[in-house]
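Hello forum,

I keep getting stuck at the same step: I have a sequence, I want structure tokens, and every attempt I make locally crashes halfway through. Rather than fight my setup again tonight, could one of you with a working pipeline run this one for me? It's a single chain of 217 residues.
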Amino acid sequence: MISKLKLRSATATKNWSISSSSNDLKNIFKNEINVAIQNRDISHLSNEINNLLKLDINIKLKGNAKTIFKEINNLIDSDVNTLVLKDIEYLLLLFSELTNSQDLHLYLATINTNMCRRFHADNNDLRLLCTYSGPGTIWLTQNNINLKALNSYKSNESIVIDKSKIQQAKTGSVVILKGSKFHKTSNNAAVHKSPSIENLNQKRLLLRLDTDRFLNF
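Reply #2:
Ran it on my machine without issues. Output:
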């Protein structure tokens, strides 16, 4: 679900936090931050990721972290995907602790379409994304958004003020995005979109985690 945002000052403060430490993902709770990213090296997962890319994965699960992890172990061969499954378990526990939410939604899929093509803000509270393979999520700094164009559902070209300043998460990074429902009164939601891969014949392996507060599959 997409949310409209209220107009903000053109001299908006820095709205992102990028670090190599998972502890800095907590910066998402700062008022001015709506994108928190932990850059990390997942090269040790490459063999298992390549195996998973050959499969047509489309998994949607909900429950607490332990329940979801148990179910996903039944759906993915745990004997040959041990490291990836351990990483998913780690991210489930990390997101559950970060959001103080016992009820989560997991979406794990191999994707070959552009998915969310238009820049938008989600109508939720917090979301975790990790692109295990392929290009990562594209997002905008606050001073690079034409909010009138965004709220009028104009083209991406109209929404972005300076194309050279478009941001993109790295493959393997943990990305936390703030939605418009965060603390209910926040208008500081992250504006983002999926990368364009369809015409390039690219494929992504994407993990998405949400709280159970606003998301309905």
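Helices lie at 46-53, 65-75, 82-99, 147-151, 156-159. If your local run keeps crashing, start a new thread with the error log.
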